[in-house]
Amino acid sequence: MELAELEIFRAVAREQSITRAAKRLDRVQSNVTTRVKQLEESLGVSLFQRDSKKMLLTPEGLRLLDYADRLLALADEARQSMRSDAPSGPLRLGSMESSAATLLPRPLGSFHARWPDVELKLTTGTSQALVDAVLGHRLDCAVVAHPGKGAPDDIDLKDMGDGLDGTYLQTEELVLVLPATHPPVRRPQDVTLHQLAAFARGCTYRQCAEDWLEQAGDDMRRRLSVIDLPSYHAILAYVAAGSAVGIVPRSLLAVHREMAHLQTVPVRTVHTFLVKRAGFATSACTAFLRELRETQQGQSPSSST
Question: The HTH lysR-type domain covers which part of the protein (predicted)?
């Protein structure tokens, strides 16, 4: 089993098409087809269910894809660890959407300007989905929110997944946002709406909002429904329309100044971390963390690797 075969297999699995995978890899279709067949023959299993439109993974293909992600990520890490010069190669970064909008723009810009040879790929998602992707070797590192309370030093990142390590970045204040016409709210019992606009399960902020609202008692627990939405634009639009309450970090409202009229109620603080697999280290990941922390501190990033 060669890394090149695994890379071709993974491209076909992701694109669900020989044609699109060949284009992505800059290979001829016949070569991609041949390499996939050779891999199936060497393993003695069918990796794809073939029909006229899509190449879908079989159960055996799904298992191999997990190994392929890990093996290819480990190969990239090994290549980078051999280089003592400037950071280069891929850096697969994950982030909550709120952090991508408020925390990352400056460090991402300065990082790209300083290390143009790093191929940066940014993926957004819920905290738990990002953690799963880091532990599954689909991401190198990710900016996530931990649901635990207390000081950052007291937080155990392994609560979100075994084998997780990370660095504290900042503490966010979560606020419940309500329509401007909603009666004043000082406690969960004052909330009259029973719909919460939030991201899908796995979002730390959503869980914090549910926990806070359910302090209102059994009636709220029974009647509370959550509207899964894909973005903060959609969440705030639902709230502004008077259809639901929402949960956002206060820093995000500075980006959406047109929503300044909404009512806000403090819920709790949540700590943000840059997480990675324990023991994972590449020059690109290390340089990005340094850029992120120095940008936060208002310092000029150093040129050392």
Answer: 1-58
Tokens 């709406």 map to which residue?
193
Assess whether pLDDT exceeds 60 at residue 207.
Answer: yes
Same domain, 265 and 180: yes
User: DSSP state, 301?
Assistant: P
* Residue 303 is assigned to a structural domain of this protein: no
The one-character DSSP state at 257 is G
Greater pLDDT, 300 or 283: 283
Query: Would you say 102 and 254 are in contact if contact means Cβ atoms under 8 Å apart?
Result: yes
> What is the DSSP code (8-state) at residue 184?
P
* Cβ-based neighbour number of residue 270 at 10 Å: 21
Q: Where residue 12 sits, what CATH number does that domain have?
A: 1.10.10.10
Please state which of the ranges 12-16, 74-78, 158-162, 298-302 shows the lowest mean pLDDT.
Answer: 298-302
Question: What's the pLDDT tens digit per position in 83-110?
Answer: 656 788 889 999 999 999 999 999 999 9
Q: Where are the beta strands (DSSP E) in the chain?
A: 48-50, 55-57, 89-95, 118-124, 141-146, 164-178, 195-198, 225-228, 245-249, 263-277
Cα-atom radius of gyration of the chain, to the nearest Å?
A: 22
CA distance 255 to 101: 8
First to last CA, the chain: 34
Model-level pTM greater than 0.90?
no
Among the candidates 51, 79, 107, a domain finishes at 79
Are residues 27 and 161 both part of a single domain?
A: no
Residue 239: in which H helix or E strand, if any? helix 232-240
Task: Specify if 302 maps to a domain.
Answer: no
| Tally of CB atoms within 10 A around 82 | 7
